[in-house]
Amino acid sequence: MIYLLEDTINGILMGSIYGLTALGLTVIFGVLKVINFAHGSLLMVAMYVTYWTVQMSGIHPYLSLVVVVPVMFVFGYYLQDIVIKPIFKAEKEVREPITVIIVTTGVWYILDNLTLLIFGPQYRNLQDNALRGKMFVLGDMLISVPKFWGFVTALVTAGLLYWFLQRTRIGRAIRATSLDREASSLMGISPYKVYNLAFGIGTATAGVAAVTLIPFYNVFPTVGVLFDIKGFIIVVLGGLGSIGGALLGGIIIGLIESVGPQFMAATWTEAIVYALFLVFLFLKPSGLFGVKYDW
After folding, report:
1. What residues contact 11, with CB distance under 8 A and at least 6 apart?
2. Alpha helices of 33-144 — where are they, by DSSP H?
3. What is d(CA 1, CA 70) in angstroms, rounded to the nearest whole number?
4. Which positions ≥6 away from 178 have C-beta within 8 Å?
5. How many angstroms separate the CA atoms of 91 and 79, rounded?
6. How far is 8 from 217, CA to CA, in rounded Å?
7. Beta strands of 85-192 (E only): which ranges?
8. Do residues 35 and 101 make contact, with C-beta atoms less than 8 angstroms apart?
9. pTM value?
10. pLDDT digit string (tens) for 189-223?
11. Does the pLDDT of residue 74 top 90, yes or no?
C-alpha cells in the first residue's frame, strides 16, 4: 500500500510537469487557432539554453529562469513574426490556416537537425547538480525533490498565466483576438502583434518547463519529440485552450505512467494512454474542460 501511495504522489508531481510542458502549446492554440508542431523542439531548445546557462555560469538551475524565459520569449516572438505571420497575412480570410501546421512541422525538423549538427547526439545532464537524485523522506516513502519543485512551479506558472490573461490589458487584448480577430482589430487591437505576444508567451512557458526538467532529465536533440507527443495527448484530454485542463491532463498521464506498472507490465501503460486519447477524440473531442469559447 505504501508503494502505491508513493507512486501516486510521484505520478502527480511528474504529471504536473507534463502539464507545464503542454501549457504553452494550449496557449498558442487558444489564440492562433493552430497546432504548433514545433512546440517540442522549442522545449528542446529551452533545455539546451538552460543547460549551457548553468554550465557556463555555475548558477543554481532554477535561477537560470531569469535568462531562459526572456531568451525563449524573444525567440518565440520573432519566430512567429518572421516565419508564421506572413502565412496569416497571405491567408487572412482563413481562420485556421492549415499551412501553418506544415510550416511548424518544418521548423520542428530544422531545429532538431540543426541542434544535432551543432551539439551532436550525446546525452547531456548537469553532473554537479545538487538536486539530481535528491529525495524527501516521508516515513517509508521517497518523494523526488526536483519533481516536487516542478509541481510547485507548474501551479504558480498556470496561476500567473491565468491572472495575466484575465486581469491585464494585454491579456484582455489576447482573449479578444482569440475570440474574434476581425472585431478586435476594429477596436484598435493589432492581431498580428497579439499573435507574436501569444507565441512568445507560449514559448517562454516552454522555457519554464525546461528549467524544471533540467535537474533530473537528460538533454539531447530529439528530447522534444517525447514531450511533443505527450503534449498533444494532454491538451486533447484537458481541452484545447484550457489552462487548468492542461495541468489536469498532465496529471492523468503522470498517474497512469506511475501507478500503472504496479498492476501490469510498464509497456501497457503507454497503450492505455493512447487508448484514452482515442476515446476522448471519439466521445468528447472538446476535452474535460473544453467549452464553446476559448477562455
Report:
1. 251, 254, 255, 256, 257, 258, 259
2. 39-57, 65-79, 85-90, 98-119
3. 44
4. 30, 31, 33, 198, 241, 294, 295
5. 18
6. 20
7. 135-138, 141-144
8. yes
9. 0.91
10. 888 899 999 999 999 999 999 999 999 999 999 99
11. yes
